[in-house]
Fold these 2 entries.
Entry 1:
Amino acid sequence: MTVFPDNAAPRRRLLVTGVGGAPGLDLAACLASAGHTVLGTDSNPLAPGLIIPGISSRIAARADSPQYKSDLRTLLAGFRPEAIISGVERELPLLIEMQDELDAAGIRTWLPSARTAAITLDKALFHEAVTAEGIPTPLTARPEDIHLLPETGGLVVKPRRGQGSKDVHYCATRRQAAVLCELVADPIVQQRIAGQEFSADCLVDRDGRTSVVLRRRLLVHGGMSMVASTFHHEKATQLVKTTLTAIGSVGPCDVQGFITDDHPVPVVITEVNHRLAAGFRLSEAAGADLVGQTLNGLFNIPVDHQRLAYRSDVHLTKYVTELSTQPRPQQPPRSHPCPTNCPSA
């Protein structure tokens, strides 16, 4: 395998999906600023990532649309990227189904197995899988099994296959949880954990070695860390690595959990996402070359884990700002092929 020095790292043609959300938007902007040619896609014509400077953009079908694969094929034929980096977990099963087709076209991906994707996309399956491996996680029940959860300490009702904090509700009793289950589609109920919430930016290389960057989630809006700081915690780091190994994760991952206050164990894992997290820029600011090493792994270049070391107590604050105050721009065409030298938007 080829190893490139920093000043000779190749410039790539990359398709980044889900630029309407922070992970995809920030990643597309980061890659473009590093000199890569980037095409950003999103299903929402109002997605901010479609108008950020320095990238080309296209509207594509949602992952739950029968048009998804057709739209993606059209984009690939026009843009001819070297690789796809997904910012949307729900499309992972579809990309996995297309793996052989993408490989044949010479388009690189770094995807988990179908089993691993299914586990992380379904909170009930995730609970079953990690509990079977002895990994601490909140007690979880389907609506018909609420009586198995503790009556005290608080409960959380959320969609079984949801993302971010959409339709997440907190309550105090099982009776309240039962009512909330009537309002949430395909819900689960979880024990509420008290303590310091954290995210871990992780990279699992093709040999299974994992680097972990821990971030305290100090202020969270819409499931995204708006204020965070890096920290070191040996037990949390080891439990994150154990979790990723147990479920077969590969590539960039976001692991969430709690350093607990009143739970029988000191660290609890709540979920895993197979993508870069919304707060990955903090890890980069703390010294971890997360994006660069992700590209290395994506293109089968050895991941340099020494470059994923990081400093503690680096602080990040996100805020809302104006991206454009001009008349509403013409939306990029939906699934319209790009020329080979697709210009920046």
Note: Residues 1-5, 336-345 have pLDDT under 50 and may be disordered.
Entry 2:
Amino acid sequence: MAGPAPAVARTRSAVTASCADLPDGGLVLVACSGGADSLALAAATAFAVRAHGPLALRAGAVVVDHRMQPDSAAVAERAAAQCRTLGLDPVLVRTVTVDGPGGPEAAARDARYTALRAVAEEVGAAAVLLGHTRDDQAEGVLLGLARGSGGRSLSGMAPVRGLWRRPLLDLPRSDTEAACAAQGLDPWHDPTNAPAPDDLGAPLRSRVRTRVLPVLERELGPGVPAALARTAAALREDTDALDQLADLLAGQVIDPDGRVRIEPLAGQPAALRRRVLRIAVLRAGVPAAALTRTHLLAVDALLTDWHGQGAIPLPGRVEVVRACGSLALHQPPRPVTPDSPHQQGEPQR
């Protein structure tokens, strides 16, 4: 008897390897949009957990309706129906409101992950499986390069990070498309993924996918996405190692009150020193999304280029000052205005 199509076999093997360490009887949830990537992942997961499958797990799915397109509700219900047909249970649809900071793409991502985490907690899932492929990894690395990001951003998405698992991260998008075709699955095609050539308002990732990567492959030769993904994997190993060393060093130089002792930190390599400073300022209340390299360099100068400069203001109303051999991080009290109810003698509520 002939086996499954090669692309189908690869997606199934990827899911089996990704989930092999999960406890028997645990529940995994597939985040399914109905597109080729997540639909191929749903099919592979359903196969892996069947009665005679390689995994002793249960599998369900979550479909998130972002309500960003006129027919989004119908698309979500169609994806849910396909997941149920594959045998996944439970299959849940969640509607979100996309109104967070950072533009539509970032806001949609934040809303989606919040919904997925909430459902996972609700049903006690051991993991949430995400359909990102090697091509998604390559696109993210290119975007990070264009922004001048650091090693953590350029290291891309991790195959496993806490609740999240990405079984297909080593497979090209062509495998998920071929797996759907071989199994008779009809994926949804997001119109924003194929913008018109003159559409400058299309999502940035879609423009990288349809315009930038094809040029790189034409000029540099095939295999650019795979090469970018290999770069991300190598950077992730280095970055993880540096982060672990920084955590150890932070325990030695950051006092319980949040003050950073200068002498044991100032002579450390810049990569470690600035990681420790980042840990310190985040603990002090600086929002991670608002913290930039420029901020960290200014704080670092208090250690390495001290010439009496004053307090360094950071996002989140945090200030860093050098005094008595350490850096103090604090949030100055808000001034009391003459119009406040307390000054006018009104009762505080």
Note: The CA atoms of residues 8 and 144 lie 31 Å apart.
